[in-house]
């Protein structure tokens, strides 16, 4: 928290330094803009973490206020920093694209009304691309790269967890094997004891008291054998536990309803004829999902859906947000979902789990309904592959998008040149009526884009405007003003 505050204070100082330093050499409206920018930039820094695009809008507005073409170097550093932070701190790119499009569209009427020159619009777009677009793309790429690194660490932690789970499973299986060996050996010995006791019980040389004692010994050996078989059966692994043929999805849901849960089941398609691995996976998925919902979302409604087509069976289990606190003493190590993911992968399917935007939890599994499906890549490898693909796509966007925008700006100059040339024509009659001392009220709203070639510079202290004699002409009228009054007029250039 302290580092974040220090960073924000430093960001504010860096953003305010250029306008404050330039305020001494500015004048008029520019000084007022520089003075207002200090508190506005402070507000932008304050909201930059929660609303990065709103924070970016502040320096963009200040830059447009001072110069429609955004050619004010005072705010370039601030634009670059806030654009990079906006790209790094936003997850969805669509609001930023709409924001950039709005700024670009606003530039056209601003150039026409304020500058009286449409050529200011391509200049503004180019400045916007260099000072805002490119830093924003760099921030987006940096965020995507950081997510890739974070995904790698998460996958490493998950792999370590899976390795521990595999080791624990191996120990449990080894214990079950030892228990089975113990059952076989001790059961065999107890059976022999019972057989020998039975033989002695029939020996005529023994009296009735001795035969009764031997009968009790035989019964004790039989009872010990049964109890040993029951105890060893408890140690059997889950993979070896068979499913009752009557344990269907309907019976699982019905049993959950009997325990007090709100569960609905929707089935589309025939459930018969599933491959053994798929049927087992569906049973385990539904059982685990209902158990997790009962543990972590008590009182929440659970909707299950089984949809089968010709090649795929999709199981969806969606529970609403918890209506009460989680059950006390319930802890989750994540091994249940890890085991389910591996089971689904071995069945040739995919598993996706995670919270929903509404606050609930969703489990979606797609399983093949035909035999011979090969195991698919693990969820970890697919997640890492998706992250890498996103980073490569983001890097491609970082290179291609600026080039495409630059090409669009270049193409935009063609219609602007035609429009500007036609709107800046001063007819011959109006030119001849102009007299020294007139104002510019009767002149066209737009001027020519610069003087013709080889035209001498205007006289010192005079502000000269150039108008076309006709569309796409190399000859122009030069009208020079002092204090907004015409002092000279002449024809420059040549046909």
Helices and strands in order, then pairings?
Elements (H helix, E strand, L loop, with lengths): L1 H21 L6 H19 L4 H15 L9 H14 L4 H22 L4 H82 L6 H27 L14 H10 L3 E7 L7 H21 L4 E8 L3 E8 L15 H12 L3 E6 L5 E8 L10 H45 L4 H6 L29 E6 L6 E8 L2 E9 L2
Parallel strand pairs: 1-2
Antiparallel strand pairs: 2-3, 3-5, 4-5, 6-7, 7-8
Helix pairs in contact: 1-2, 2-3, 3-4, 4-6, 5-6, 6-7, 6-11, 8-9, 9-10
Top keywords for this entry?
495 residues; alpha+beta; Heat Shock Protein 90; Beta-lactamase Inhibitory Protein, Chain:B, domain 1; 3 domains; five-stranded mixed β-sheet; three-stranded antiparallel β-sheet; 12 helices; 59% helix; rod-shaped
Beta-strand portion reads 5-15%
| Rough outline | rod-shaped
Roughly how much helix do the residues carry, as a percent range? 55-70%
Say how many strands there are. 8
- Mean pLDDT rating: 78
Biggest sheet, in brief? 5 strands, mixed
Descriptive report:
The protein is of the alpha+beta class. It has three domains: 1-191 and 377-422, no CATH class; 249-376, Heat Shock Protein 90, CATH 3.30.565.10; 424-493, Beta-lactamase Inhibitory Protein, Chain:B, domain 1. It contains twelve helices and eight strands. It has helices spanning 2-22, 29-47, 52-66, 76-89, 94-115, 120-201, 208-234, 249-258, 276-296, 335-346, 379-423, 428-433, and strands at residues 262-268, 301-308, 312-319, 350-355, 361-368, 463-468, 475-482, 485-493. It has a five-stranded mixed beta sheet, covered by helices on one side. Strands 6-7-8 form a three-stranded antiparallel beta sheet, with no helix packed on it. Strand 2 (301-308) and strand 3 form a beta hairpin. Helix 3 runs antiparallel to helix 4 (76-89) and helix 9 (276-296) runs antiparallel to helix 10 (335-346). The longest helix has 82 residues, at 120-201. It is rod-shaped, with a radius of gyration of 40 Å.
């Amino acid at each position: 928290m302290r580092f974040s505050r220090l960073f924000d204070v430093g960001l504010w100082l860096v953003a305010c330094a250029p306008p404050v330093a330039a305020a001494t050499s500015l004048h008029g409206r520019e000084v007022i803009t520089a003075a207002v920018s200090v508190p506005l930039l402070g507000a932008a820094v304050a909201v930059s973490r929660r609303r990065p695009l709103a924070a970016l809008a502040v320096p963009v507005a200040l830059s447009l206020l001072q110069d429609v073409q955004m050619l004010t170097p005072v705010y370039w550093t601030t634009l670059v920093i806030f654009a990079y932070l906006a790209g790094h701190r936003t997850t969805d790119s669509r609001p930023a694209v709409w924001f950039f499009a709005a700024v670009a569209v606003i530039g056209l009427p601003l150039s026409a009304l304020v500058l009286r020159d449409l050529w200011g619009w391509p200049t503004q777009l180019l400045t916007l691309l260099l000072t805002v677009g490119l830093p924003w793309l760099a921030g987006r790429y940096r965020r995507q790269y950081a997510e890739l690194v974070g995904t790698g660490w998460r996958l490493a932690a998950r792999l370590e967890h899976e390795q521990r789970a595999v080791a624990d499973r191996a120990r449990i299986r080894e214990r079950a094997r030892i228990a089975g060996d113990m059952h076989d050996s001790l059961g065999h010995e107890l059976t022999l004891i019972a057989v020998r006791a039975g033989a002695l019980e029939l020996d005529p040389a023994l009296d009735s008291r001795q035969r009764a004692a031997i009968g009790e010994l035989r019964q004790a050996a039989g009872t010990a054998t049964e109890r040993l078989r029951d105890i060893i059966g408890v140690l059997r692994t889950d993979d070896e536990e068979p499913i009752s043929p009557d344990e269907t999805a309907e019976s699982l849901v019905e049993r959950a309803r009997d325990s007090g849960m709100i569960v609905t089941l929707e089935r589309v398609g025939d459930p018969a004829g599933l491959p053994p691995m798929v049927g087992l996976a569906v049973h385990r998925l539904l059982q685990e999902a209902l158990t997790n919902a009962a543990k972590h979302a008590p009182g929440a409604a659970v909707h299950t859906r089984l949809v089968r087509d010709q090649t795929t069976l999709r199981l969806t289990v969606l529970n609403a947000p918890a209506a009460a606190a989680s059950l006390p003493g319930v802890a989750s190590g994540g091994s249940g979902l890890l085991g389910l993911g591996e089971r689904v992968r071995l069945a040739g399917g995919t598993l996706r789990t995670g919270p929903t935007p509404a606050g609930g939890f969703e489990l979606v599994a797609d399983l093949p309904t035909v035999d011979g499906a090969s195991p698919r890549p693990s969820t970890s490898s697919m997640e890492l592959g998706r992250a890498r693909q996103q980073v490569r796509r983001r890097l491609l966007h970082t290179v291609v998008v600026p080039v495409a925008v630059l090409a669009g700006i270049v193409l935009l100059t063609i219609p602007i040149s035609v429009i500007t040339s036609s709107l800046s024509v001063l007819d011959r009659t109006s030119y001849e009526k102009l007299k020294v001392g007139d104002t510019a009220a009767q002149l066209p709203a737009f001027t020519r884009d610069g003087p013709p070639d080889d035209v001498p510079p205007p006289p010192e202290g005079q502000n000269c405007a150039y108008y076309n004699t006709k569309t796409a002409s190399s000859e122009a009228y030069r009208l020079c003003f002092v204090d907004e009054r015409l002092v000279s007029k002449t024809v420059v250039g040549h046909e």
